[in-house]
Design brief:
The chain is α+β, with helices and mostly antiparallel strands. Helix content is about 20%, strand content about 35%. A hairpin with a 5-residue loop joins strand 1 and strand 2.
Length: about 110
């Protein structure tokens, strides 16, 4: 249950050095709609943007036509361009939450 409630897909590399979790939550208090990238962590030699593209393909197969979205805490990442790996994978910035998290979508 580490991935939370709702329909979910948990992806990881064979070596276990990268993980991606999709959650299909139908009722959210923040009014976000679509399939949520709940967890993404990459400590592998693979490019994060390529792993995101592959995860997008899996989600598109399972939930065709759905919006993909995620939240990035700009204060919690060391990058001067938070969410860049998602942007490089074809996502776009679409706003901020009330708490200051960057919202990205595809």
């Amino acid at each position: 249950l580490f991935a939370g409630p709702g329909d979910r897909i948990i992806l990881r590399t064979d070596a276990g050095d990268a993980m991606y979790v999709w959650r299909a939550e139908r009722y959210r208090f923040d009014a976000q709609e679509g399939i949520n990238c709940a967890i993404f962590r990459n400590e592998s030699p693979h490019r994060s943007s390529e792993l995101i593209r592959q995860a997008d393909a899996v989600a598109d197969h399972v939930w065709p036509g759905e919006r993909h979205y995620t939240f990035v805490d700009p204060q919690a990442v060391r990058s001067s361009n938070p969410g860049f790996c998602f942007i490089a994978a074809g996502w776009r910035k679409c706003g901020f939450t009330k708490g200051g998290l960057l919202i990205l979508e595809r």
